Amino acid sequence: MARKKHASAADGAEVDMTPMLDIVFIMLIFFIVTTSFVKESGIDVNRPKAQQASKKPSANIFIGINEAGLVYMENREVDIQRVRANVERMLAESPEASVMIQADKAAKHGIVVKVMDQVKAAGINTISVAAKEG
User: For this protein, what is any one GO molecular function term (predicted)?
Assistant: First the structure.
């Protein structure tokens, strides 16, 4: 008879893991939803050096301009006239977004100004231009 009591006490010592798994799953969903994803421009550029270059908080929207004057956003080439539409779409996803233009030092400044105009027309007034310290 004592043997049966001992066996039933061992059965009652199990821990139910379901509530803990529910909490972990909810936390995982929370972190996935609240994470902001950075979309790089997709190209490597040789940035110009600037004496007054300073570190700024990271931007959410990156626009790359290579030495040939081609504009890249999200790892793909974009026509200059389509920059505004792309920035507006990204701005709808993230209303507090800021723009970083990564222009190659050999890129013509006229193209950089056209891209800046497209960004301003999309509704973003704060534009940063990437440079190397030095």
Answer: transmembrane transporter activity
Q: What is the pTM of this model?
A: 0.61
Residue 10 lies in a domain: yes
Statement to judge: residues 72 and 127 lie in one domain:
yes
- How many structural domains comprise the chain? 2
Strand partners, 82: none
- In terms of domains, do 73 and 122 share one? yes
- Residue 96's contacts (CB-CB under 8 Å, 6 or more residues apart) are 60
Which residue range(s) make up the domain with 95?
Answer: 49-133
Query: Is residue 54 domain-shared with residue 26, that is, in the same domain?
Result: no
**Ordered DSSP codes for 24-74:** HHHHHHHHHHHPPPPB--SS---PPEETT----PPPSEEEEE-TT--EEET
How does pLDDT run along the chain (134 residues), one tens digit per residue?
555 555 555 566 778 888 889 999 999 998 888 776 655 555 666 666 665 656 665 667 889 898 888 999 888 899 989 999 999 988 888 778 888 888 888 888 899 899 999 999 998 888 888 777 65
